[in-house]
Amino acid sequence: MITEVQSAAEAVDIGRMFLAESGLPMQLSERSEAVWDELMASGKGAIFVARANGPGTKIVGALGALIHPDIIDGKLTATEFFWFVDPAWRSLGVGKALLSKFEAWGQSRLAERFIVSRLLAVESASVEKLYHQFGYLPLETHYIKEIPRCQ
């Protein structure tokens, strides 16, 4: 069963697993929790989780989403910002359930467009197959560059 968390702190452990596997040069910070909490409180963001055996058990998957107007055409857009399933729980329908919950959430907020992504460091064939099953088409590749700042 997929549920929406009330605080980003609930999803920190699965977030760390995501970052470790993704290869992204980032770390979770207290600020990221605060940003997600602000987005969730405003209704513009949501974090959905899948638990191993119901409420209160280990989180085995998560998806974070935002709803916003597209900056090009103004269409209300639901964007997935992170999506991760514990490797031990892959191919068991957890990803499909998270994606379905994301779409239902966006539709309930009248989204006209949905955007999802796939990290290059994560096995792609099954993710791409799932996206195609849901009607998504590949559009672009993103690049990232971190700029160190003096503290």
Shape: globular
Domain count: 1
Uncertain regions spanning at least 5 consecutive residues: none
* Arrangement of strands in the largest sheet: 1-2-3-4-5
Helical content band: 25-40%
Q: How large is the count of helical segments?
A: 4
The named CATH superfamily: Gcn5-related N-acetyltransferase (GNAT)
Rg over CA atoms: 15 Å
For the terminal residues, how far apart are their CA atoms?
A: 43 Å
Instruction: Please describe the biggest sheet, giving its number of strands, its sense, and whether it closes into a barrel.
Output: 5 strands, mixed
CATH first level: Alpha Beta
- Give the averaged pLDDT, no decimals: 88
Shape-level CATH architecture: 3-Layer(aba) Sandwich
Q: In CATH terms, what is the fold-level topology?
A: Aminopeptidase
Q: What fraction of residues sit in β-strands? A: 15-25%
**What structural class results from the helix and strand content?**
alpha+beta
Number of strands: 5
**What string gives the helices and strands in order?**
EHHEEEHEH
Verbal overview:
- By secondary structure, the chain is an alpha+beta fold.
- It has one domain: Aminopeptidase (3-Layer(aba) Sandwich).
- The protein has 4 helices and 5 strands; from the N terminus they run E-H-H-E-E-E-H-E-H.
- The protein has helices spanning 12-22, 30-42, 94-108, 125-133, and strands at 2-4, 45-51, 59-69, 76-85, 113-115.
- It has a 5-stranded mixed β-sheet, with helices on both faces.
- Strand 2 (45-51) and strand 3 (59-69) form a beta hairpin.
- The protein starts with a strand and ends in an 18-residue tail after the last helix.
- 23% of the residues are buried.
- The mean pLDDT is 88.
